[in-house]
Amino acid sequence: MAPSKIHIRTDKAPAPSPYLSQATVVGNIAFCSGQLGIDPKTGKMVEGTVKDRTRQIIKNMSAVLEASGSSLADVAKVNIFLADMKDFKDMNEVYMEGFPEPRPARTCVAVKTLPQGSDVEIECSAVVTGSIKAKL
Fold it and tell me: pTM for this structure?
């Protein structure tokens, strides 16, 4: 029998597009959809630098993980998408603030464009260590 999928939804992170979930939990793994630097209260992209948007992404991701019964400390794999690799150093400075040691396995690639004109998007997979708090 295949494990069931639980779709996660929390108002502490930006509302997802109708074609995706903020996260899906299968077994004891939470698969978080890519997050942008959007303020969940305003629904708008955070102004400023790639550091500002990366900081907001980590806040959003933390909220989704918490709703999934997980946390940033439980993240096993991160995928980062940058519109320009010139932002790699600045993004990394904030990334290191958000992800505790030992840091998760990670991939970072440059892509031609990102949704809503963003310069950074981050997704992750994490182990579920607690109870799921917000689901569809």
Answer: 0.94
